[in-house]
Amino acid sequence: MPAYGTLVEVAAEVNAEVMAADPAAAQELGSIERVTAERHGAIRVGTAEELRQVGQVFAALGMHPVGFYDLREAAQPVPVVSTAFRPVDADELAANPFRVFTSVLATDDRRFFDADLQRRLEERLARRELFGPLLLRLAARAEEAGGLDAEDADAFVRLAVAAFALSPEPVDAAWYAELERVSGVAADIGGVGSTHVNHLTPRVLDIDALYARMTARGITMIDAIQGPPGGGAPVLLRQTSFRALAEPRRMRGTDGAVSEGALRVRFGEVEARGCALTPAGRARYDAWLAAGGSPAASGARWRELFPDDAAAQAAAGLTSVRWVPVTDRARDGRAPEADLGRLLADGWVRAEPVVYEDFLPASAAGIFASNLDAACEEGRAGADDAPAATRDAAWLAGALGRDVVEPADLYGAVSARSAAEVADALGLPPL
Ligand code: OOG
Ligand code: NI
């Protein structure tokens, strides 16, 4: 993919420099080995059935659907709802730090598709096969048995890789163009016969430095870094990307003739991860966003909401942390009090940040939008806003045939478990 090599190279360069400056600080949110290996990809599918199948493929790899993101509600609406497949356990994530942001097309969104287009789109989607029967059988067996023998594992990986690769099959040019007129995302999903990984994001320890360096190398990045502003102890997730570049693609004309064309469907993205937030912290972030918060515009307002310092963020109950008893606390004749804020202030416990492992709907919509021609995503001229069938977290779980994990529950459980261990260690009642 054009410019991908540069992105990975610059990310490695920045990470090496941040490590050299202060290895302990650089690794507060994960070992350099993990951060270097870490990637997230993204795919898009067209139907509930395709979503169920993709859930099966990822289940074979210990990756579970976490989170529900409704990008139809974004400031720049995109006709998809999404989840992310990832390991759930902290240990498994450390060993296998991979996620796949997965979106399914909302073919019933009347702002984009009229009834006739919806019908033709759904007919085409129903006819195609993204994942063959052997791949799905191997995936189901891997999930059930917790693995496959070497030969089957090789076959599984080979078939899965092929299912997510950009297809050499010619694209029906007229159909693609018709969809593209209402939504570039719809064209990318329903205008072709297969799915593909559209980006594969490395993790970087200083995203501002990366942004500047990519620009200096002549690669045009999107206007802004998405997510919270930089500076201070990092929270949640900051992301930026460069626009999809044209790649050669065979196109089939209405006369059946195949010619060389080009499509822009794969782009480069990079991310920096920070500390997860408690529900109270997340409410602050969402309110900041809703009030028009953007990294460029409202640094000052941000600083009122989020203290710069990680300990102050934790003491204010904004960040999800793992509470750890301090074993070498100097004796001062005082007894520990049964309150986490006091224990932190009095030096009985430390607060270790819990890495935010998920995504942000507004940022995701921003990444989607930055990769579409503005004219594409306007939807259908004169479209009414007839309510679409409900596509909420329950719909997603039903389509997948699997529970969708709520990210906040995972972060809350880590904090609660560590608080219980602290209470135990210090001989205190439950905290
Ligand atoms: C997914 C865009 C969102 C992220 O990291 O939030 C995304 C897509 O374009 O399919 O990748
Ligand atoms: Ni992404």
TrEMBL record:
Cross-referenced InterPro entries: HGLS
Cofactor(s) the protein needs: Fe(2+)
Gene Ontology MF terms in the entry: dioxygenase activity
EC number: 1.13.11.93
Keyword annotations from UniProtKB, A to Z: Dioxygenase, Iron, Oxidoreductase
Keyword Iron found: yes
Highest taxon listed in the record's lineage: Bacteria
Pfam name, any one: HGLS
Family: Belongs to the 2-oxoadipate dioxygenase/decarboxylase family.
Name of the protein described by the UniProt record: 2-oxoadipate dioxygenase/decarboxylase
